[in-house]
Every structure is written in C-alpha cells, then in structure tokens.
From TrEMBL:
Signal in keyword set: no
The protein's Enzyme Commission number: 3.2.1.26
InterPro entries reported for this sequence: 6-hairpin_glycosidase_sf, 6hp_glycosidase-like_sf, Glyco_hydro_100
GO MF, one annotated term: endo-alpha-N-acetylgalactosaminidase activity
Family from the record: Belongs to the glycosyl hydrolase 100 family.
A Pfam match: Glyco_hydro_100
Name the record gives this protein: Alkaline/neutral invertase
Substrates-to-products reaction catalysed: Hydrolysis of terminal non-reducing beta-D-fructofuranoside residues in beta-D-fructofuranosides
Domain of life: Eukaryota
Gene Ontology terms describing biological process: sucrose catabolic process
Keywords from the named record: Carbohydrate metabolism, Glycosidase, Hydrolase
Cited function: Invertase that cleaves sucrose into glucose and fructose.
Amino acid sequence: MEGMGLRNVSSHCSISEMDDYDLSRLLGKPRLNIERQRSFDERSLSELSIGLTRCGLDNFESTYSPGGRSGFDTPVSSTRNSFEPHPMVADAWEALRRSLVYFRGQPVGTIAAVDHASEEVLNYDQVFVRDFVPSALAFLMNGEPDIVKNFLLKTLCLQSWEKRVDRFKLGEGAMPASFKVRHDPIRKADTLVADFGESAIGRVAPVDSGFWWIILLRAYTKSTGDLSLAETPDCQKGMRLILSLCLSEGFDTFPTLLCADGCCMIDRRMGIYGYPIEIQALFFMVLRCSLAMLKPDAEGKEFIERIVKRLNALSYHMRSYFWLDFQQLNDIYRYKTEEYSHTAVNKFNVIPDSIPDWVFEFMPTRGGYFIGNVSPARMDFRWFALGNCIAILSSLATPEQSMAIMDLIESRWEELVGEMPLKIAYPAIESHEWRIVTGCDPKNTRWSYHNGGSWPVLLWLLTAACIKTGRPQIARRAIELAESRLLKDSWPEYYDGKNGRYIGKQARKYQTWSIAGYLVAKMLLEDPSHLGMISLEEDKQMKHVLKRSSSWTF
Ligand code: GLC
C-alpha cells in the first residue's frame, strides 16, 4: 500500500508515536498538514524516547489535558511530594497479592475473589481476563511487569485451543472469559482449565476478552518500553486472529459489532444484545491499539488497511448516532417516521413514543453521553459507565463529547455516583420490563448487580477519564466516597440500591478488581503520567473526516 512510510519506521519509534497514525495518509489521501504540529515538549519527549528508556516518559504524550497542566490543582511533583498514602492502600496491596495465582511457580494472574466466607464458589476462583486488567495496571504502575507478561503469554496459549460448545466449534481467535490452574500434588503438575463460554452461565462467549488482551498488550508495551513482546510472531498472530473475528464481512449495514446479550462485563441477560456501547467502545480502542502494534509485514498490512477503513466508519457512526445530548434528544423527540431513501433524517426509524420518560428528566441542558445501543427502531437510552469511560480514553469521544460526559456525571452525581462509585448502568429496569428484558433474573433485580448496581471497580476508569479531561477533582470526590467504606465492608464486588448504599445482595467480599481498581485510581491521581498506558490521544485526521462526511450527508 502506498504511503506506508509512517509504519516503516515503526521499529525505530515508540508506540506513542505510532498512536499518532495519520488516517488520511493511510487511506492514501492527500494530507493537509504534512508535518503535524507538535509542541516542543511533545517532540523532545518522543525524541528522547527513541533508543532510550521509554518507561514513563512518553506516557506523558498521550495525556490529553486542555491548556496543558493547568487543569491540575497542583503540579505533579508537589502532588507527589505531598502525597500521603491512605492507610487503605497497604491493605489493598496485601489483599491483591493474596489473590495471585501461580502456574509452575510463576505468577500468571489474580483470582476473581478471595472470599472464604462465601459458600458458593461458582467460578470466582478463576482468573478472569477482564478482571485481571486493573490488577495488571496496578502491577505495571508499581514497576512489576513480569506477571503481566506471563498472563499475556499464558492466555495467548489458551487462544490456540480448540473450543467447542456442544458440537459447534468457536472461532479460532476467541479468548477465554477465565481460566483456572489445577495443581496435582501427587504428580506435582500444574494444568490449565479454561472457559470460553462453554461452561459459562448462559453459554455466551466473552467478546471483550480478546479486546482486553490487546489493550493490555499495549499497556505493557507502553509502560515497559519493551516492544519485543508485541513484536513476536505469536503476539502478532494472536492480534490478527482476534481482529479477523471482528473484521470479517457479513450482512452488516453498520460498522458496529453485532453481539449476543451478556458478552462482556455484563455477562447475563440484560437487554444489551445488538450493538452494546461497552463492546463498541472497546472495539474502537482495540482497533487503535492494534494499528500501533501490528507490523506492516505481508500478513499485517492487509489488517492495517481494514482497520483504518473500519475506524473511519466506526467513529462516524458512533459519534453521530450513539451520541445523545439535549439537542439530539429534542431532535429525536420531533422525528418523523416511515422515511424512506437516502434523504431520511430518522435513518433507523426510531419511533419517538419509544423514548422512555426518565430520559427527559435525566438529560441536563449541558452534558451528554453515548447511549447503550442503536439498531433498527431501537435506541437503548440507558447510561453505561464502562463504555462511556472507554469512549473518553480511546478518544472515540471528541474532546467536546468527553467534556460533555464529565458534565453529565457532575450534574447527575446522585444518580450515577450516589454513595458508592460507580453505577454500572442507569436507570434500573423494573417490573414488567425486568421480566421481559432479563427473563426474571433474580440476581439482576432493580438497582442490584448489573441492573443499576454500583461497582467499585469502575473507579479506575472514572479516574482515568477525569484525568484525561483535566477534571481530577471529580475523581478525588469519588475516591473519597470509596475510601469511606470499601475496606470496612471488605471490598465488595458491588453495592445495591438507588444510591449504592447497601452491600450487594450476592456480592462477593475481597473481590480482586474492587481492590485493584482502587489502587489504580490512587496511583493515577498520584502520578497522572500513568494515564498513557490506557489512553489514546485524539486523532486530528479522524475529526477532519467526520466533519467532512457530515457535511456531505446532510
Ligand atoms: C461476574 C461479573 C463479571 C466478572 C465476574 C468475575 O460474573 O458479571 O463481569 O468478570 O463476575 O468477577
């Protein structure tokens, strides 16, 4: 492909530079700005990173902070000096280390929950891929990358297993939801047992596992500066297999990814089938991370081309159709229906009567968010925290949209944060709707678990989003709330109730990702340069493309 010059230098530049891929160049279109204007700081940091240790330094580059560091109350150095570790931090580290899982003497992950009091173990004694992410980030931020590398390599081996549900063979690239290490004390042998959805309640494959794997691979690379892992043929192949599952062509008319209910953190039926925001935001982030890590060799090149095209279409679709603010809501409220042909404004034929009452009250004059789902004649107006935070971190949200999401969180604090950060979804589904949507799920009753429950793990995502948007005071407020209860309540998995006041009905105690999520939030606030591990800068070219195509379409 022409114009691949940018990628040819990839082995000499840092991942942060590769993040700044140039969409129009890759698409073979003329660029407006040949030399992207970079500030001296930016340039010198990335130059410094070439051939030198990249650890920590180029993390700064991806920190989106409007107006430079002025968004922060105090300069990083003095924050650091004055930082008094909260007494909970030491407890959290101890608890996190107790959750370590070993395979043949090497730490390979953390168990989902170390709750000895709970009678039902179910699968909480396993290493969940998604649950391990905050643990991994905590270890990376603490300068302990080995466990993360071991985890990435072990899960990569699992990917190559043949996976079946009854007589049906799953796609090659699928990654497990979780795995377990079986110790045989007699034969003194360790073996792995993995679950790709074939044992999971509901038998749903975790679409997010492979996505988190790629995001973690980038975080590891970014944090250690060790490009060699991502560049191994095995990791390159692992990425390509995951990508081929979600880039394959079918009957789709949208660039979003069609999913079954319960295919992500919300792993039970909750009416998120279709195009759930959590998966779309992760998908977008994964495409961008992969673009930075894929080698433009014989096999990688084709993927790079497909990724660029998909990113372009996906960002346009998400920013236009999933975005809801006061203006947009008012437009939908006044939609005409039964429009046919290319001139239709109401493209998906959404019937205004289907807009739920609560959203009119909920929507502030200032603020907005990506709604839960968009498909023909169906908009799920619910707020989902994970998808919106990932949208900010991946820069799927434009800077204006990111600010609007933070405005919404601030103005709807009672509803979205309440007494324990952070509501997984808002509002809860009740009565008849709950019966129909969840199939009468007793675990997902209103304001509990996935149905409007409050999940401490989401604190790290909120904190990262706050730092990226230059609003650390919001994170501080949320962390204080968590600190008033989490340890005392033994690190529950989730809280129940409209305000998140009650420990969840069936919540595990010593839930590892509640512990790790808190630690990551604390470390991010203490040293915002860690943000680069899980954040990507806005791509200016993509913004340009969006503007242009909107003016063409309307
Ligand atoms: C529950 C959660 C899921 C999590 C798992 C292990 O099933 O819904 O997101 O990965 O517990 O903690």
